[in-house]
Amino acid sequence: MGDKILCMDKKAWWIIEIIFLITIIAFELATLAVKRWFNQGESPFDWEGGLLWPTEDSKYHSHDYTYYHIYDNCDPVMYSEGSCKGFRRLWAGGCVYVLFECFSLLFLVLTIGVLVANLFTKKVAIWLSLTFYWNAVMWQFLGFVIWGGLSKVTYMKGNCDDNNWNGGEDQANVCAKEGAKLSLFTVLYIFISCAFFNIIYLIGRKKKDDELQGIDRLPAFKDNKENLLADEGKTRKKKKHKIQEPEQ
Questions:
Q1: What is the rounded CA–CA span in Å between residue 133 and residue 111?
Q2: The sheet that has 47-49: what strands, in order across it?
């Protein structure tokens, strides 16, 4: 690319993008650290849960049991079939989210590595960072969508209050809390950041292509090129003539 993109040095853009990437990593780690992802039910039967286990003050919390342990010991008569199904799906969704989040974090670190390398050398292709970046976006998005689908999360307040897990054959909806909301924000943030970086890259690439095509079209450049070739040809003829002259 050229030295400047939109009146700013391209290395400055890489530094800005590295800052964005660091904040994305912070947000993704925060989603894994948040304890409360959702709540469900009406008082006094409401409860709250995280990615892999209920919160400590939840009625389902017991000795750091995960949703898998609760499901494994779930009695459909005591909890209802819908509740047991819900615990199983919450466990599956949480595991998928954690795994895919790790993949996303890995690709974010690789993206930063390529950009840092480009600050000191031009030997690493910048398009490689875009490939890693979009992979990070994909894994983050898939993890969020799969967790949301399995947990039946809703962002509409009140839509899960009337579907208590104490009864019914179908899994009830859960209402999004801090973790689910932060995860949704992270999905939007990482997509916008990656799209912005992609636009900057394409602008710089187009500028470079236009500059190369413009140089080839300049008459002065063509004339100078022809003159250089002609001078080079004359120089070669003189050298050849001197070699062929007999010694006197």
A1: 6
A2: 47-49, 38-40, 174-176, 153-154
Please report, for residues 220, 237, 248, the alpha-carbon distance to residue 244 in angstroms, rounded to integers and kept in the order given. Answer: 36, 11, 12
Phi/psi for 146 (5° steps) reads -65, -45
Kindly state the average pLDDT of the residues 115-126: 81
**Which amino acid, one-letter code, is at 160?**
C
**Closest listed residue to residue 52, CA positions, set 5, 89, 80:** 89
Distance of CA 181 to the CA centre of its chain: 17
What is the secondary structure of 5-39 as a DSSP string? ETTEEHHHHHHHHHHHHHHHHHHHHHHHH-S--EE
pLDDT at 75: 74
Per the structure block, which two tokens stand in for 91? 């466990």
Which residue in 105, 111, 169 sits closest to 139, CA to CA?
A: 105
Calpha distance 71→83 (Å, rounded):
9
More confident residue, 67 or 102: 102
- Of the pLDDT bands very low, low, confident and very high (cuts 50, 70, 90), residue 183 is very high
Nearest to 47 by CA among 67, 68, 73, 77: 67
* 20, pLDDT greater than 70: yes
d(CA 104, CA 28): 9
**Amino acid 138: pLDDT:** 97
Determine the longest span between alpha carbons in the chain, in angstroms.
119
